[in-house]
Write a structure and sequence with these properties.
By secondary structure, the chain is α+β, with helices and mostly antiparallel strands. The chain is built from one helix and 17 strands. Strands 4, 5, 7, 8 and 9 form a five-stranded antiparallel beta sheet that branches. It has a four-stranded antiparallel beta sheet with strand order 14-13-16-17, with no helix packed on it. The chain is elongated, with a radius of gyration of 36 Å. It comes from Poecilia formosa. This is Ig-like domain-containing protein.
Length: 222
Amino acid sequence: MLNQVTSEGMFIDVKYPPSFPIVSHSFSGEVVEGDSVTLACSADANPAATYTWYKEHEANPLSKGPKLVFRSVQSSDSGKYFCAAENVLKRMTSGSILINVEYAPKLPRISVSASEIMEGISLTLSCSSDSNPAANYTWFKENEKTPQSSGQNLTITNIGRQHSGLYFCEAHNSRGSHKSAIHLTVAARNRNMTFKMMNITKLAAAALLLLTLLFVVSLWTR
């Protein structure tokens, strides 16, 4: 009978640093505000790597763990993200992935080029809204079906009293629309001139009264 020699197996545990981390994502197309978005980071390592998530241009980490989850992504979440995989041997950083959140226009802001609106001047109304993709703009006047203008600015040259009223700026893109309003009151130029003449008359009367008082005082003191 032949003698049999047996030996116990030996386990060799080879330690190695993380490989280049790979970032995968849950979305296959456009990301719309309110969607759920998940980023996942993976790297081969022994011992197993720990993961940390960052957003570009922000010093503080966002979270730890292999996944970064946005349950309801917001416009402010747009940006580039990356992960770091680390064990006792080394730290490796992934490439960045862009989350481009599309959203409907926010409430438009309307500005006016003049502080006083009088007949005859040229007036420009400007409209702006935060949106992605960029918004298009349409101007309407109350009780008028035809748009006044398309574009961010509405310019009214030689403005008259008939231009008084409520104006609307509608900002719209493929994700929705939002509207703001402003009321214009055009003052008649002759009223403005009358107001100035009244002020001049009052000043003249006050000056005449002052001179009269000075004359009386001078006579009194003689």
